[in-house]
Amino acid sequence: MSQEIAKESTVIPTAVLGIFVLKCNTVRQRLNDFFCYEPVILIGSTAIAIHLAHKLYNRVPNDGVKKGFMRWFFRNVRKFPFVKKQVLAELQKTKDTLHGDMLKLMKGKRKPDEFEYILTLPPVGAAPDDIIRNLKEYMELGNYSWKNGSVSGTVYHGGDELTNLNVEVFRLSAWTNPLHPDVFPGACKMEAEIVRMVANLFHGTSRTCGTVTSGGTESIILAVKAYRDYAIQEKGIQYPEILVPVTAHAAFDKAAHLLNMKISHVPINPVTCQVDISKMKKMINSNTCMVIEVYS
């Protein structure tokens, strides 16, 4: 009895498959009778299918299908009235908290509600003495004094002598533009010397090059751009990716966003606070063009 049931269960799918194949052949025959160009149809449909698959692939976000789907899902969920109301309430609560925290920081000679805010350009320029007076008042706001060393990692103070030197250097070179080395060759010389000093510190060769930037964030963005361009032009990687620890500087995420690159974050060891090398190795793939191992 059980053998008969097994035979019947096998025959049914086979019969269904046979009917499906027969229907497909019938449709194929009718198309051939109508168009008489089966090769053209096959090639054209294949080309269309490849084109649609390519467009679908290009719609996959850099951070993956899962995260892209989650963004789409929550973006649409927020449109429901009761969800939207809750989200707006939470946003307003956050705004009120930020506003209150900012007012607490405004500690000076006046009360927070007595401050005047300049919201538009004045019709007449302010006098130099007024500008200096306003600037001094602005600089007195806040709860911390960096001069006594209570702010770590924010201001790198080298003493009054260095401050005075910086002021004098700025006074002498304020009206220069390194984008025009033909007009300001001295500024170009200073940049070249700075780059060579740093290159020598890192044991660079005569081919080592660089540029002076406005700060750490711009330096990281330009470094990521250099890796991306090298991966595309020299290695033939169409979609370069970055691999960084979760403790990496936020500028790497900014760079990935600005340069349209995928960035993956590697967890760290909770005890040593160092990147988990074994997990990092597993996350490296053929598109990886830049790996940041130790950065916090």
Layout: helices, strands, pairs:
Elements: H1 2-35, H2 38-58, H3 65-77, H4 81-105, H5 128-139, H6 160-173, H7 185-201, H8 216-233, E1 241-245, H9 250-258, E2 262-266, H10 277-283, E3 288-291
Parallel strand pairs: 1-2, 1-3
The count of β-strands is 3
| Helix segment tally | 10
User: How does the helix and strand content classify structurally?
Assistant: mainly alpha
Mean pLDDT: 84
Unreliable segments of 5+ consecutive residues: none
How far apart are the first and last residues' alpha carbons, in Å?
71 Å
Helical amount: 55-70%
Order of helical and strand elements: HHHHHHHHEHEHE
Q: What integer value in Å does the Rg equal?
A: 32 Å
Widest sheet, order of strands: 2-1-3
Largest sheet descriptor: 3 strands, parallel
Q: What share of the residues does DSSP label as strand, in percent?
A: under 5%
Shape: extended
In short:
With 296 residues, the chain is mainly alpha-helical. The protein has helices at residues 2-35, 38-58, 65-77, 81-105, 128-139, 160-173, 185-201, 216-233, 250-258, 277-283; strands spanning 241-245, 262-266, 288-291. A three-stranded parallel beta sheet has the order 2-1-3, with helices on both faces.
